Structure formats: C-alpha cells, structure tokens
Amino acid sequence: MNRIFTPFYLITALTAGLSCFSASAQEKVIKTKVPPVGTASLDGKRLFLEFCAVCHGKDGRGGGPAVPALKQSTGDLTQIARQNQGSFPDQKILAIIKGEQSVPAHGNQEMPMWGKTFNDMSTDLTVSQGRLHALVRYIESIQAK
User: Fold this and answer.
1) Fewest CB within a 10 Å sphere: which of 16, 38, 104, 137?
2) What span, in angstroms and rounded, lies between the C-alpha atoms of 121 and 14?
C-alpha cells in the first residue's frame, strides 16, 4: 500500500513545486501609479528618499523596491561624475529631473519628472526650484570618490 501512495506524493510535491516556480517567474508589473504626496521639505537627501529611492535605492545605486517591475534596471547614480571624466554635470542632471532631457533607459519618460510635480505642489516657483536644486546637490554629494 505504501508503494502505491509514494508516487502520488512525489507527483503532488513536484506539481506544487513547479507551480510555485512558475508563479515567481512571472513578470512583475506596476499596476497602479500613485501621485506623490506634497512635501514641505527642501532637504535634498529627504527629497531623494521620498521621491527617488523607490527606483534608485536609498544609496542611489539602483536597488530600490520598484526595480523588479521596471523594464530596465536603474543606473548607479553614484557613478555620474566618474562617467563624466570626474565632473558632475549638474545642469544635465537638473534637465533630466525636470523632464527636459530624455534618458534612453527611461523609455518613454516613465520616470516621474519631478519638475512638474514640484511645481504642482507649490504656487511658489522659488520653492519648487529650490527642491530641484537641493535634489541635484544631494545626487552630487553621493558621487563615488
């Protein structure tokens, strides 16, 4: 009797294992886009953690929790200066964050463009520009030495 049930148990275990494997192998997709909540912060690090870290990771190296759902992995933001002969291209980074310059890895501008978002959060243009510049300065501060 034991011999009859052993193959049944093995087949059941194998089927369960394969179904778990195929479920984890499915493509992860971001199904809901949630608008960002307004912030009073003008601190670059805090803004980065609040708006950018979900994709770029808390350390800017690209390990954010949303990465598995992205079509392409995010770049290592700590290497920007190194990729530009040791000079941090602050105007270029500002243009990217504002949405004025596209980045091939972002595809069709799927990365939230914080320029518009920050402008929508405040009626004071100076405040939204301050947030953008604080964010650029923070990204400059995390560059690899």
Assistant:
1) 104
2) 53
